[in-house]
Amino acid sequence: MTDAHLLHWLRCPYCGGSLGLADNAALVRTDDRIESGVLGCDCCAFPIVAGIPVMQTTDVTRAAIEALEAGRHDEALLTLLEVDDLNRELVRGWLRAGGPPTFRAGVDGLSRDAEGVWAIFRVADPTSTNTEALLDALCTSPPVIRGPVLDMCGGFGHLSWWLRARLRNVDLCIGDMFFWKLWLAGQFLAPDALPVCCDGNAPLPFARGTFPTVVLSDAFPYIWHKRMLADEMMRLCGEDGLIVMPHLHSSLGDNHSAGVTLTPAGYAALFAPMQPHFFRERTLLAQAVRGEGLDLSADASPEAVGDDAAPTMLACRNTDVFTRYPEVEPPPVQGQLCFNPLYRVTESEGQLHLVVAFPTDDYADEFQLCLTYLPETLTLPGDVLDRARLQPMALDVVALRRQRVLLDLPRRYC
Ligand SMILES: [Zn+2]
Fold first, then answer.
1. 130-146 residue pLDDT tens
2. How far, in Å, from the CA of 105 to the mean position of ligand 1?
3. Which of 146, 184, 284, 388 is the most buried (most CB within 10 A)?
4. Distance 35 CA to ligand 1 centre (A)
């Protein structure tokens, strides 16, 4: 992302002012992006490290600025990654090698909790199946989704990856409060998005009307200042904008790690100026699995989703969006086709034997719905992966992609 993008989009989250780039020892530019530097407004200074503007003011960001201004760029990065003494050498090794060997190794090395398992298998879970079907609908020609797109609380960049497969030419920005996730996003799932480290519990650090589309998946209930975030999302997308929120935990349903949930009516009230519509996740998943496309024309009141655990919310004043979308072909492959990581794969006599192997009992409990579309066991020709990579749109390959046995993943994913 260029200087122009960066300075045009970003604003101070506190004073709202435009930002300038200090011309000092911190500043490192490559051809197409600002690698590191210090941004300043009338009230604060913010570091840019590894191409990521960090729009927060904490002891950690102050330490990073100090390191940058002393020309210690690696130290600034290690500070923001919050690497402890135990894995400091591991991460230094990655930096010498140009990055972690795989996404999985990066998550394992930097994650502090069980979220790592969730992150790696994110590509395989029912929410991903639903979200990809929703993006298939909203990106069909002419696309309802217009750029630039903000993927707020976008974390490791999974949603940006799925969006990029369908819309090659929109500008993408990922906002997340965790620097280390954005750092991994830039290396694996969202290499060409602008990552911005920012807190969903504070005013968002962007100019009004910057993003005609704002997406936020599976994170809104973890935000305490929901009214402010809803107002901020509406400020950024403007009156003609679109807000897309797949997998919005409802207090009327059962959710693992639910966060502080509201009823669908509660969420509807927050986004009332944008006329939000709600869809049962179970209904959308069933349509996606049956290959029917998605019907977004059905009754969409908050009451209509009943006790669905995590409905999808779409908010947009243009009612043309709420229509029936046909099934479309899978998008062109942007990484490479791989087996869904939920499968354990063994080989014998020229054939591959796939068996679903959930990573943990908790995961199996939370994501049983996978088995509504993934065959529990499957035998395939030994050369299926080579052939799928050569002919990703062959009929039998497309069938395996629709079943989510084969997934388009970044190289070195796991
Ligand atoms: Zn300011």
1. 999 999 999 987 899 99
2. 37
3. 184
4. 22
